[in-house]
Amino acid sequence: MEHHRLTERQDRILRHIQDAGFATIDSMAESFGVSAQTVRRDLIALERSDYLIRFHGGAGPGRNMVRLGHAEKSTAAQDGKTRIAQAVAKMIPEGAAVYLDVGSTVEAVARALTQHRHLRIVTPGAAVAMIFATARQIDVFLTGGSLRGANGALVGEHAKETLRRFRFDHMVTSFGGFSPEGEPMDFDPEKAILRRIALENSLQRIGVVDASKFHRHALAKMHDGVGFTDLVTDAPPPEQVVAAMARSQTRITVVEAPQIESR
Length: 263
What we know:
It is a single chain. This protein has 263 residues and is of the alpha/beta class. The protein folds into 2 domains: 8-61, Orthogonal Bundle (Arc Repressor Mutant, subunit A); 75-254, Rossmann fold (3-Layer(aba) Sandwich). The protein is built from 9 helices and 15 strands. Mean pLDDT is 85; it is low at 66-76.
């Protein structure tokens, strides 16, 4: 991995992407008063150090970008993901066929499911699969594919073909953010394709997202026609998300932190 000292403009680019979740080359060129080619050169240099991932026409956060402004995600975010995971685990009965996607929130769901019996889990996530390594009454199948990202995500044609052969009782997936109209969106088109296949092949389709994603704009559409049956989150969503979920007849479950009474 190649690291280098950031220029002032590169630092501004990273802050811009951190705030927006995804940014186009043209918008950054206009914001910073430089050419698109100059921005493109900066993006190439930043991608070499894993600060971002380049997509067609723009870029999103990479492994080394501190997406929430801290070296690690806050305790509050972890607590929210735990509450989300516990709520989702109650939706999934023992003996079910379940698709689990990748990401820290889905990993929390996986941990909450380890006490279930006779689950059949399919996942494109090596990190998710390893959570069940000692769960003897749960069968786990990895899709295979090309390794993509620090969380052990598997993508590519092999993963797609594998997923098309399954039908699931339940699927659980996270995603990168929302469109300005409140529709679920993702940063990585390759992962978004796998998520769409799983959506099409699942009866109960559960999206999990913590409140930090409500105002993050991503690149790729999560679905074409077949949307979530459920959205589970840790705070009340903004109006545009509520409206979009109503249009797709998606149930919203909010698992807020318990109130502590002051004495």
